[in-house]
Amino acid sequence: MKAIIVDDEKHVRDAIKLLVPWNNFGITAVLEAQDGVEAIQQIEEHKPEIIFTDMMMPLKNGMELMEWLQTNYPAGKTIVVSGHDDFELLRHVIKYGGIDYILKPIDAEQLHGALAKAVTRIREEEAERSRQTERNIERNQLRPVYWEKSLSGLITEPSGYESMADALQEEFGLSRDVRECKVAILSVDTLSAALKNKFGKHTELLFFSLTNISNEMLAEGSKRLGVAYRYWNSDNEVLILFYEELDTAEQLLARLQQGIRSVLGSTLDIGISLRRPFPAGLSAAYTQARLALRNRNLLTKTKAIYTFDPNPPAPPKPLSFTDYAEAFKLAVQSGSEKQIRKAVLEWTSAVRGQSSITIGQLELWWHEYNVSRNRWLTEMFGKGLPSFGQSEGYAFILPLDEQGAFSIDLWEQQLIRSLTEMSRLLLTQQQQDSNVIFDIARYIQHHYHQDITLQEIANHFYLSREYISRKFKQEFHVNISDYISGIRIDKAKMLLLNPNLRIAQVAAMVGYDDEKYFSKVFKKAVGMSPNEYRKVNQP
């Protein structure tokens, strides 16, 4: 901080300089002036924060100096040091914002107190200015977000326009007289890879750049033609609301594409609606712009502007993925990457034969693929689905090349990788299934004489009863209960050859506690009772 001492008597100036420990108050420079005229020159040049002044001086006195200070330098804090105990002078000091009125001869304690009060006020005002600056910065940062959310809300709730009409006119020049509008969508989902990599994870900066470029073009000329903003109800859209000179909207969008290419090195597809009532037609205008983008032909490599067509031509007979699904399934089950590649190439060959492919068509194919895929997973793995098969399907993502254009080649590679991975997991699962099923078979062969049940086997191997039952039958072509019975009957046949063993003993030795039930099961399996079998097969 700086201070200035204004007094026509040098000994008074020197006294003040000696009485004050300036460094303790954070004052690094002390200026001097012998009258109000010189003081004004020094204040304008050096901007001291604290002014000590006498009231009676030649040329321009203290009262005149204070009047000048209030008008031209209100930030300065004035302390009057005067030899006149005059109420009118004191009243003047109070009127023009003086900090204190100290009488000569100068009392050091009074001087220090007045200076401390002035320094405290300066620091308080600096702190308040700092807080105000931070609040202003915060408001400026939040202001675009506020308008983005407000304008986004109008798309879904046009009835909210009336509550913000005056603010919209003041902020964007959107007059209450506007009766029609158009909505355009800048879709960032087909940006080039180079541009996506340039921004990386900083998508906020990408949206900021796109809206800034757009708003600069919309503000060209004598009046603003519209406003661009990020649409908060979507992750990848910048919207432009046109409300002036609607007939030139498409031409402005063409210039905008060139501007984006010039600044960012790449451009994007834009969909635009027809004229719709404002504000009631905002939702319909947005829907039209979205449909214009969804119905665009993805086989077109260059970025373009797509205007909504209320009477689009009839689409050709759609290609159905389900017609090729069985070939995909068999290729996966074959375990052959060559067969998988062949099945995929047959499908993509048919895709390449299409004259037009829209996002809607791709999403339909993707849905059909996921339905088929989930059915295959259930058939192949049952409840033991691999981790990639737990969901209903992946989110649809456009396979794009480096220029941001739809690529059948990339889609082909994705399908081959996905199906090959599924086939590999199937083979691994089958090998694991075979191993555990044979382990179960060996377990049965060693424990056939015990009261063995499917539940007991399931508990022992930590598998579900359903899984064991299904996989066992697939491997051995017989129910597990029949397999157990078969082993028991075979063992019983051998034991019955020993004439010294009673039938009840044989039954107990092969796992049957009830002799009559054993005889019934044996006769059903062999065609004769245990006694008859023993008689026929005696040596």
Principal-axis shape equals: elongated
Poorly predicted regions? 389-393
Per CATH, the architecture of the largest domain is 2-Layer Sandwich
Assign the CATH topology of the largest domain.
Alpha-Beta Plaits
Helix content: 55-70%
Radius of gyration over all CA atoms, rounded: 45 Å
Beta-strand segment tally: 11
Query: Span between N and C termini?
Result: 126 Å
Per CATH, the class of the largest domain reads: Alpha Beta
| Main structural class | alpha/beta
List the helices and strands and how they pair.
Blueprint: E1 2-6, H1 10-19, E2 29-33, H2 36-46, E3 50-53, H3 62-72, E4 77-82, H4 87-95, E5 100-103, H5 108-156, H6 161-172, E6 180-187, H7 193-199, H8 203-218, E7 226-230, E8 237-242, H9 249-264, E9 270-272, E10 276-277, H10 282-294, E11 305-307, H11 322-334, H12 337-352, H13 359-381, H14 408-447, H15 454-461, H16 465-476, H17 480-496, H18 503-509, H19 515-526, H20 530-536
Parallel strand pairs: 1-2, 1-3, 3-4, 4-5, 9-11
Antiparallel strand pairs: 6-8, 6-9, 6-10, 7-8
Keywords: Coiled coil, DNA-binding, Phosphoprotein, Transcription, Transcription regulation
Protein name: Two-component system response regulator
Domain HTH araC/xylS-type: 438-536
